[in-house]
Amino acid sequence: MDDEAQQEKKTVVRCTFCGEPLKRDDMVRYRGAVACRQCAEDAKKQQERFTSPVFFTVGGIGALIAGAGSIGYILSRLLPLPQWVVSGFTLVSVGLALISLGNLGLYFNWDRKWGFFLAALSLAGCFGGLVFVQNYIALGPAPYLEEIPAIYPLSLYIFEGGLYIMLAVNGALMVLTRDDHGIELLTLATAGAMLLASAIFYLLLPAFTLHSIYFLTAETETIGP
Ligand SMILES: [Zn+2]
After folding, report:
1. How many domains are contained in the chain?
2. Are the C-beta atoms of residues 196 and 67 closer than 8 Å to each other?
3. How far is the CA of 31 from the centre of ligand 1 (A)?
4. Ligand 1: centre distance to CA 42 (Å)
5. pLDDT tens, residue by residue, 165-198
6. Do residue 62 and residue 26 come from a single domain?
7. What residue spans of 11-111 are helical by DSSP H?
8. Same domain membership, residue 201 and residue 96
9. How far is CA 166 from the centre of its chain?
10. CA 12–ligand 1 middle distance (angstroms)
11. How far is the CA of 8 from the centre of ligand 1 (A)?
């Protein structure tokens, strides 16, 4: 009996959060970690404040809007028609604004650094796209301008750069964080929706671009002397 009591003293279990030794009655588990009741309750409250799925739902809706807008985006690359440029770029920009809310959810739920980085990227992309639309409406298509103001191509670079880098980082995070951090399911769904929406766009865009370059150069050759 003495040995058993001594053994119990040696293997005293402590709370993962505050380090206090735990009595059997006071011991609970919080996400697998041994904790005292107080710490588990505090951690749960903290978690509930930030795990609102609203962020991710909004981000997912944004991804779908951006996906729908990307069809106009593709068409605007093929045919320089104002309606496709304006509607496509605007929809993708609005989608990006909503996606940045989803990324804020990532910031609160899981990773402050990457969540912030992604939210900043999508927001930058959104502003770039809207500035481009504004330029397009005010100045018309770039190829027909004698002098293109720097803000015109710059807005396009910010728009596309934000979009591309954000998608690349999201894809990388999905792979890298699968096991280590137990990334939230809804984050995964948001990222998945974004990648799905972009798949149509990014797989087809290089092909369409090459195709249009082919036709544009072919036409120039026929017209030329
Ligand atoms: Zn504790």
Report:
1. 2
2. yes
3. 14
4. 9
5. 887 777 666 666 554 444 454 455 555 556 555 5
6. no
7. 37-50, 54-78, 82-109
8. yes
9. 6
10. 14
11. 20
